[in-house]
């Protein structure tokens, strides 16, 4: 089998899924345009800002993608490329796309608020508090980790740092110009073409003008940037940067497909399925935790219900942004698998240890793009820069999401403190940044990172739980959400149980307690959801 045939088959399945299964899901969520979206109802020029579907898709896709759909699938190939591909396709269509769209639509019907507020309305205030504490802690962890990763990337690749700075400056100019031509489609198209052309030029220019600073200084600059990105109007910096950056990833996908079709390499890796891995453990549940982005990721629910729902112009835009955006990411994950299965299993295993997944992806895809006549070194640098650009997107998006989560947690708290913490975006963002600095300074994030995969997938299970209860209380048959929810709870509870026991036996008691705490949290929320639904259990459900 050739890699080209694998990509074409995967693309055909994902496109068919959008039009066939997507139609069923859209009907279930009763998506229509006679409802006023939160972006219009609460438009404030800062967080709530109605925007074109292509702009929102760019922001959403850039925010949910990051390095996740690249790193996870490549590591998961350890169990075999066949189970990895199957989970990406099945998970992306029946789990991830439903999860992302459900989170987005539920938020659109709840004033653009996050999954935490939806839990408050459907399961209860205690459930909201537990969920938001968990999601806030997870976001702080992600901010700390990605600030460290990006700072080290900038040190090792000063050209990437220069290009990233140029991207930010370009985004601000593009955002200002876009405001002036917002109602003229032809001018928006022209400015987009110019913006994308300049962005690609800045890839080259950044490599010619390397910018060098030490680690500590980069760390503070990155967190200062994250602070500014969180409090600045979304249409000025975050949205235009993500929109332009999305064309880097679109370009990467187009170049990758063209390179694969032109080179038409064979799949050298055998199709054997490995039930266990010496380093990772058992295929179940590890495969389903390792491949998060690309199949289903709890982080997506925070983006969909945090920033994206506040920018949706018409409710039907959620179809392509939520459901379609997830399927595009699934295809990117397939490309990531393809970049390494052109190696034999022995070559893959040794290279993964020596270079890591991101370098493997850059080298593998760069070689295929090089077959188009593009210098291979430039192609490899382009792929590496694209991955780094999306890591920066994850950093600034997470900071804004953490700010939303913090503010929503204190909504309804009486007194001046509650009012200040729930309304002052500068103070809440400052607290987020300070906590991130403290976490980085303590070095604790390196210890917590191994548990992040399980925590992220638990977040997905909890988001599906919230969406399922929301639908059931509207007397909609929620089986299409409930089945993925039960599977994800099974995966995460099994993973957390194994993780807690293993670390307890290794005397890593802190990690064991954290894993055990997450396990208990999920059980408590399930019980609260069951109690909340008790009064509705006797009511007949209607088909939408």
From TrEMBL:
Assigned GO CC terms: plasma membrane
Subcellular compartments: Cell membrane
Family to which the UniProt record says this protein belongs: Belongs to the peptide transporter carbon starvation (CstA) (TC 2.A.114) family.
Protein name: Carbon starvation protein A
Main localization category: membrane
InterPro entries found in the cross-reference section: CstA, CstA_N
Keywords: Cell membrane, Membrane, Transmembrane, Transmembrane helix
């Amino acid at each position: 089998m050739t890699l080209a045939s694998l990509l074409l088959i995967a693309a055909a399945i994902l496109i068919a899924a959008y039009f066939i299964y997507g139609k069923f899901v859209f009907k279930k969520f009763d998506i229509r345009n006679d409802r006023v979206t939160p972006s219009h109802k609460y438009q404030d020029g800062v967080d709530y800002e109605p925007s074109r579907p292509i702009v929102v898709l760019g922001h959403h896709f850039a925010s949910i993608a990051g390095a996740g759909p690249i790193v996870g699938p490549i590591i998961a190939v350890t169990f075999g490329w066949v189970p990895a591909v199957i989970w990406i396709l099945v998970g992306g269509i029946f789990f991830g796309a439903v999860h992302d769209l459900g989170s987005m639509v539920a938020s659109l019907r709840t004033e653009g608020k996050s999954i935490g507020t939806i839990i408050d309305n459907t399961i209860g205030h205690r459930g909201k508090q537990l969920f938001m504490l968990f999601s806030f802690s997870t976001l702080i962890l992600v901010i700390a980790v990605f600030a460290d990763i990006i700072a080290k990337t900038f040190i090792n690749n000063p050209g990437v740092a220069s290009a990233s700075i140029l991207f930010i400056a370009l985004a601000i100019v593009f955002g200002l110009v876009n405001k002036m031509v917002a109602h003229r489609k032809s001018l928006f198209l022209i400015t987009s073409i110019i913006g994308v052309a300049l962005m690609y030029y800045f890839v080259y220019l950044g490599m010619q003008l390397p910018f060098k600073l030490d680690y500590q200084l980069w760390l503070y600059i990155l967190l200062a940037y994250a602070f500014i990105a969180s409090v600045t109007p979304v249409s000025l910096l975050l949205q235009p940067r993500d929109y332009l950056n999305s064309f880097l990833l679109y370009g990467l996908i187009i170049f990758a497909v063209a390179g694969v079709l032109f080179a038409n390499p064979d799949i050298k890796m055998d199709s054997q399925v490995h039930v266990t891995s010496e380093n990772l453990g058992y295929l179940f549940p590890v495969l389903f935790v390792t491949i998060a982005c690309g199949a289903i990721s709890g982080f997506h629910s925070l983006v969909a219900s945090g920033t994206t729902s506040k920018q949706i112009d018409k409710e039907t835009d959620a179809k392509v942004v939520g459901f379609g955006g997830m399927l595009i990411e699934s295809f990117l994950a397939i490309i990531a698998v393809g970049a390494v299965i052109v190696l034999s299993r022995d070559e893959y295993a040794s290279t993964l240890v020596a270079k890591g997944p991101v370098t493997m992806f850059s080298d593998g895809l760069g070689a295929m793009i090089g077959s188009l006549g593009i210098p291979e070194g430039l192609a490899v640098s382009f792929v590496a820069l694209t991955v780094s650009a999306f890591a920066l997107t994850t950093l600034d998006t997470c900071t804004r999401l953490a700010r939303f989560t913090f503010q929503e947690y204190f909504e309804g708290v009486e007194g001046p403190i509650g009012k200040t913490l729930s309304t002052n975006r500068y103070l809440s963002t400052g607290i987020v940044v300070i906590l991130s600095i403290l976490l980085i300074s303590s070095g604790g994030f390196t210890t917590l990172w191994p548990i992040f995969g399980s925590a992220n997938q638990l977040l997905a299970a909890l988001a599906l739980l919230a969406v399922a209860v929301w639908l059931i209380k509207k007397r909609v048959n929620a089986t299409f959400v409930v089945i993925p929810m039960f599977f994800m709870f099974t995966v995460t509870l099994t993973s957390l149980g194994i993780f807690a026991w293993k670390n307890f036996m290794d005397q890593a008691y802190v990690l064991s307690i954290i894993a055990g705490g997450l396990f208990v949290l999920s059980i408590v929320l399930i019980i609260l959801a069951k109690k909340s639904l008790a009064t509705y259990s006797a009511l007949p459900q209607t088909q939408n």
